[in-house]
Amino acid sequence: MHRLKILGLALMSVLALSVIASATASAALPTVLNEGGEVAAPKFEGTSGETEFAKLNKKAVNCTASTAEGQFEKGKPLGLFHIHFTGCTSGGGACTGEGDVEKQILVLGTFHIVYDKLLSEGSLGAAILFLIPRFHFTCIVAGLKVLILVQGEVLCLLKPINMLAKHFEVVCEQKEKGDPGEATYWNDEGKAIDIKEGLLGEENTGKFEMSSESGTGLILTAESVEIMA
What we know:
The chain is mainly beta. It has one helix at 2-27, and strands spanning 31-34, 43-48, 51-55, 61-63, 65-72, 78-86, 89-90, 93-97, 105-117, 125-141, 144-159, 164-172, 174-176, 179-180, 184-186, 192-194, 199-203, 209-228.
């Protein structure tokens, strides 16, 4: 009987260790591997169709298209990006970034590949978190030039995962204008992070308000890679 108790305790210890190992594995962020199974740092280009930026219950800024460039940092699921939006208007008036051609807005920042869902929820998903430092552009509204400041973070779904590919889809959603469709992700400690403010916009008021972005983009990497999640 004593031996059975010891055996039972040993089995419980093994199970506990396996649970801890599993939790630790699920906490690690997705990795980006090349065809040889090595950690990759690919460059990428991207395009999108119409994109909308909106503050909650306020008039939106719409851009007809965009092009993007970026690169992953070696050994890490993160990197730098810049996106050039074109055909940008609000209420029919042109919206233009500082030093840009009319109706064009350049956005620079960093990105992180994160978990959108965990296996404990019955499925696993990856997302791309765009971190955007403060920048500004102007829109002509009713004949007046309006200065708009933007900063914050945008969480967009990313697919495919767990398979080699060169084409990836990035989907940014809104529940309603100004309310982001995706607002929770998991960090490298396996902790759920709720985006409380997301993308913030300020329009001649001195106060930033919740904003969001909606649109779908396509990313083409310079080599085939697999986002392991």
